[in-house]
Specification:
120 residues, Rossmann fold, alpha+beta
Length: 120
């Protein structure tokens, strides 16, 4: 649903998006960085989901994913990068953030990207 919402808003704005999948949020920055070397983009967005479990893994993954994405953004300041990694305590929170009739993070992320691109 999150990617559907992002795609829908991009399509409505006649914006082409390229989707690249990776195994998890820790791999987002490396995947994004490689893609940015291969293709010229007006802007990029990393989308992921980290759900808290019973171990410290949640904090480690969240912090590292955010840190790595920030590093990619700083290394490529001419290309806006939106961090669309959701960090939630449970599936209910994830569904609330993704749902277009509730928090609608998909729309928020794509609108942020549009704003960053237009402000360059």
């Amino acid at each position: 649903p999150l990617l559907d919402e992002i795609s829908s808003h991009a399509s409505s704005a006649n914006v082409e998006i390229i989707t690249e999948y990776c195994p998890g949020s820790l791999e987002l920055a490396a995947t994004l960085k490689k893609k940015m070397l291969d293709i010229s983009f007006d802007g990029v967005m990393a989308v992921g989901l980290v759900i808290r479990g019973d171990t410290p893994h949640f904090k480690l993954v969240s912090r590292q994913a955010y840190s790595d994405l920030a590093k990619v953004a700083l290394e490529n300041q001419t290309i806006p990068l939106i961090n669309g990694v959701l960090t939630v305590d449970n599936k209910v929170q994830a569904e609330e953030r993704i749902n277009p009739t509730k928090m609608n993070k998909g729309e928020e992320f794509i609108q942020s990207l549009f704003q960053m691109i237009s402000s360059r």
